[in-house]
Amino acid sequence: MSNQAIEKLSPFKNLTDEQAQLVDEVILFAKQHLTQDFPAVYTILGDAGTGKSIVLSHLFARLQQAARVQSDSPFYGTHNYFLVNHPEVLKVYKQIAGPIKTLLKKDYQRPTSFINQLDKNNATADIVVIDEAHLLLSKPDHYNNFYHENQLLEIIKRAKVVVLVFDQYQVLRMKSFWTLDRLKDLIAPYPHQSYQLKHQFRMTASDDLIAWFNQLTNGLIEPLPENACDHYDFRIFDDAEKMRQTIVKRNQEVGLSRILSTSGYPSTLDGGKHYICEGDFKMPWDQYNFTATPWAELPQTIDEVGSIYTCQGFDLNYAGIIIGPVISQKPGTNQLQVNLDRFTDTEAFKKRADLTDPDQIIHYEKRMILNALNVILKRGVKGTYLYAHDPLLRQTLFELGQALNA
Q: Fewest beta carbons less than 10 Å away: which of 163, 222, 379, 381?
């Protein structure tokens, strides 16, 4: 594994003053509630790239240091766990734990494994830290051996203190359906505190360009800010193959540069290759990654197209984004149109008993598709390239790019 993903989440990475203060605040919160008779919850909110995960990494390293070697600490002897429902991200945390004596690989688990293991041993946890809590299951999923109604609720029942990070704009599947209101309702019966991280750390892009991305993922196509390319390589292509060739060059120069796409192209988990074709461009979707190395860090994935499931939570140096057939431009407007009939991720929108209003379901499904675009738009640290399948959207975006460079 390359060091980039590990360095990003390493507990030895320097924190900003705000992040360090937040870790101290959560430590104090945990100390205050560790001896109470009922669970307490601390929520860290923030968009993609705002540093939520590095805060958790530092926090957990401090807790485990205290739990295992600091006999005068109130955390000494506590049983604490770090959960993440994303197999690629979990690989990175386990790699981090390897060389650090006070962090064990078994400290890091998938939520279902944690719940089932504690039940099997008739045990409870002291402090549970949850990364990417927006990926927690909020309905039963028998395929993944989860038979309860909500993973977060089950985790809270088995812990004294729960610390989680949450981003409502990274909710991508009905089985992990969350809104901020749903989260607030679930934790309302427990003592709780929250903090919002706002500063974008991942991308070297200007705040104005980040705001433009946010507007796009809210369905509005606005003129590009004049500083869109300041200290950031932002380009819009009308040829997907030329974009791929440029990404290959960036990958040769600095590494960790990949093509990513939204849904809308053939995609089935059947072990075979399914191709994205756009003019002269033809590449297969990402294959299932059986290795301990995250998808983007495997050299051969320069010849694959990444999905939200392989890139969520990870940094790339350069990201070439294909906005697929599932998103187009509404003719005669500056608005995006979500085409549910072109959505090809059949697993994402499984029905759930607590959502029955057809209009509400359609609203949430469209929001999740735009959330997926939001996730892949915020991967590129040094640069982002865009290409759209829809001819009208492709022309509109390309002309916006041309106007910027005029």
A: 222
